[in-house]
Write a structure and sequence with these properties.
single chain, about 260 residues, Cobalt-precorrin-4 Transmethylase, domain 1, Methyltransferase, Cobalt-precorrin-4 Transmethylase, Domain 2, 5-stranded parallel beta sheet, 11 helices, about 20% strand, elongated, EC 2.1.1.98, methyltransferase, Dphthn_synthase
Amino acid sequence: MLTFVGLGLYDDRSVTVAGRDAIRDADRVFAEFYTSRLVGTDLETLESTLDTTIEVRDRAGIEQDPEPILSAAADRNVVFCTAGDTMVSTTHADLRLRAENRGIETRIVHGTTAQTAAGSLTGLQNYRFGKATTLPFEDAHGGDGVPDSVVATIEDNRDRDLHTLVYLDIKVDDPHWDDSDDTYMTADAAASLLSEPFPDTLGVVVARAGSPDPLVAADTLEDLATRTFGDPLHLLVVPGSLHPLERDALTAFAGAPIE
């Protein structure tokens, strides 16, 4: 049995009771933290809270060499953990398909997703979000500014009056917990990049979703680029047209200018 468990958004307490129970009942527990991170905790604390030993795998250890996970799951109870909700990344879907193709039973224990948290915190209606996109660091995509694919996604969503959730890049090749200052793209850096292709455009920052002190801020991208939003993780939403209730929510909860 291979059980995929989403650990939630922030720290060692974000996992559901069902996820915690699955982890504690497992013979072996694997995890990856390169697609996202639990920035409110560290590996030692996570293992202590969940009363287990977690075998952290890097990108190559999941995508190129999943054999240790699959072999263990063939005859034992194995859990594979990710931050947020599992199956959001194609990496996780691929691992599940590999298990199914080998006759290994799989199941999923969900965690909170960044997209649903962004909708809840901002008051933007969940069914009005279009395709999401990821904004990479400039040196990660070999060019300057915003990749054409990111611009196209936002433009297509706005043409249909849909909101765009913009995930912000994480610099990580191997899982580790000693982060440099530029490990995480910040919302002000993202707003600065996006303000060039989208001048005079409303943006909404969501910082530390799932933590005790989340922050939501709405303003033009140019203005957001001049502010700081504290510790990671950050997200940025570029809204489409706003329903009156969404306008009221952004004014009340995110400090959006009335105009």
